[in-house]
# Entry
Amino acid sequence: MKEEEILKNKSLVDKYLNKKKYLCLFDAYFYNIDDLSIYIRLDYNNKNATYHINWVNLSSMDDKNVEFWINSTLLFPSMVDKIKNIIAKNGMVENYQDNDGINSKVIINSYLKEYEYNIKTFKFNRYIPNCWQFLADLLFIVFENMPRYIYPLFQIIIEKIIKPDTNCVFNFDFNNDNFDDLFDKETIKIGKEYYKDSRIIFLEKETDFYKSVVCGSQNYLVSILIKDNTKEVQMSCNCPHDGFCKHIYATLLAIKNKEEYRYFKIAHVDDDKDLIDNLKNFNYLLCVGIVDDYFVVIDNFDFVYVPILKDGKLNFKIIEDDDKKTLEKQLNKYLKKHQK
# Structure
């Protein structure tokens, strides 16, 4: 449904509730959040001296029978007092210009006239910005008193102000947001040292994933997903550190500076495709070298050891090496020692 139609429905809801003598304390308009458009009002009914959360799915309204579409929940005065206190303490906010470029919209209006910071409007495209974190506290009270199936909308809009975890996809604009905010100062310091000391041995992108090998106390594998179109990121490292580590930070610096250190690539010897076809069709394994009797390859988020020989015969062939033929030399040395 186009926003023009959504706004017409919103106007019908306002007209109906105002006619019913509901006094609006604040409202929240959510447009096109994962194809859902919701309108919420916190109202005071003077006749009954009661507070109500009135809400409607604007995307579903298809006629002018507004009463049929409006849902209402009573809210305890103590909860309303909490909302009023949040607004009173956080009325003065900095100006905010949203640059997410996402085709959605959130507009929140406060009409609490008894406070110094009375009428306020907060606008952003999808995610509550850090400068207005208090809005999450306010909306949490509202969404906790609404049906559970609406709650995921709240979870979406607070993504930017929640400290993300490794291995989890979270909202992040790699081109505009500062990834330093994800790390503590000591990790940033050591991560920069790792980057300057050229500890990133391999770094290459496959589809949306960057995979790097970083030399620390041993070699560690970093995997970073960056989706520019949806502004989503996922980061992981197989080191013992619990959280965003120095290996991830060093890798992010290399990605930001558009650096690449290509992996060795190997394919099964029984694959009848030529080298170019294997590379074009991703019929290969990313390899970091040879250890004992094995090629060390990348499988998802960890190192895997695959046998060099099978029944005494070479199990894999090299389809990409570096300029110094490093992997070929390692393999020849191994074969000279182990093959008759």
Notes: Residues 235 and 275 are 31 Å apart (CA to CA). The chain has a mean pLDDT of 88.
